[in-house]
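Just curious: can you write whichever protein you like plus the matching structure tokens?

***
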Amino acid sequence: MPIDVADADNRPLEQTEIAAFFYFDVDHEKTITVKSAADIRTVVIRPLSMHIKPVIRGNEISFKIFKPCQIVLEVNSWHKALHLFANPPEKNRFSKSNKDDLYFGPGVHFPGVIFAKSNQTIYIASGAVVHGAIFGKNISNLTGRGEGILDGSLFRRNIDTINMLELVNCHNVAVSGIILRDPQVWTFLIFECMHITINNIKLVGMWRYNSDGIDLMNS
């Protein structure tokens, strides 16, 4: 897409388009069926290395997956692609073990900036949309997990400058499963940290200027 950086606050709407995503659990062979609103000319399923063969019947596309994966379904072109996040079933359901643990259940939440603490678990459940950010500084033994969405769309560019997930001088942190959507600046900043584990997270909606993905700095 063309880029006009004169207005560094937001990318013009005409340079963006809606993309969709869907997430679910997979622990065995599963047949996925998608209905297309447009007449189907071509179908591409990425990554091509998975060799997924779609079957087209009218306006329906079906295919099989055999394990957890992240794939993109392109109908007719890469525009308005459908992103599918097939997660492994959770082995350890959330159970509060620390008074500082936070649980965001299915539904919409507006916590703003969450200031993380040592020995804390922040759990964003499947079906949850958390409008906010997570900031941790000089802490250790933090866990952020779940299958839900951490959403930065309500933050204002160049006014709310917090990264969606920011770790500064943190140790022994594990982040897994969650979806980071619509950041206003860098999405996931890791600065002067040690022993950070990142697994199966998804970053979508990187449409605003300078919305880097995962930045590893001096770590």
Summary: DSSP finds no helices and 20 strands in the chain. The longest strand covers residues 128-137. The two ends are 33 Å apart (CA to CA). The chain has a mean pLDDT of 92.
